[in-house]
Amino acid sequence: MIETERLVLRPYRPILAARIADGAPRDPRWADGFPGDGEQLAARMFLQAGAPAGPWVPYTVELRATGQVVGGAGFHGPPDRAGTVEIGYGLVPGARGHGYATEAALALVEFAAHLGARCGGRAGPRQPAERERAAPGRFHADRAAVLGAAADLSPVRRNVHLAGIRPDNGRGGVQQ
After folding, report:
1. Please, are residues 11 and 1 in contact by the beta-carbon 8 Å criterion?
2. pTM for the full predicted model
3. Which domains are present in the chain?
4. Which of 12, 103, 130, 133 falls 20 to 30 Å from 154 in CA-CA distance?
5. Which of the 8 DSSP states describes residue 80?
6. pLDDT greater than 60 at residue 110
7. Separation of alpha carbons 161 and 10, rounded Å
8. What backbone torsions phi and psi does residue 175 show, to the nearest 5 degrees?
9. How far apart are the first and last CA of the chain?
10. Can you tell me the distance from the alpha carbon of 18 to that of 10, in angstroms, rounded to the nearest whole number?
11. Is the peptide bond before 58 cis (omega within 30 degrees of 0)?
């Protein structure tokens, strides 16, 4: 679990991923529009990969104040040989425009850096603001870059709590 001031990112587990992949049965904590196509695809890929344990998985994005699940964010797999891990995220329409995507992305960047990896990702058609800030189709982020971008987008305190996580060798596992 990764916690920020306003969000809780909960890692996919097999039962949750199966429910998200199917879109049913709906959980009363799921916001209208969740799961979206991106979350369902991430859940199917997670399950097809054998529901791997560890930090490099998809996460639900939950509002800390209400417990409502408003989207997904996470890693597309473990770091590559260069130590780069790709991130992705998406929010239901009603949760956009509040800085939640920036806060979730920052949390993932902080988390990856804590484990010795750096983040990259793709700006997709559902994320026009991110696409404008990214190089065509790709971005690589470090904490300073995300913090700089986030400073203009959200008044949220830039603090991420990595619940029970200690770095190991920075390349895959975590000690809890």
Report:
1. yes
2. 0.73
3. 2-162 (3.40.630)
4. 12
5. -
6. yes
7. 13
8. -100, 135
9. 11
10. 15
11. no
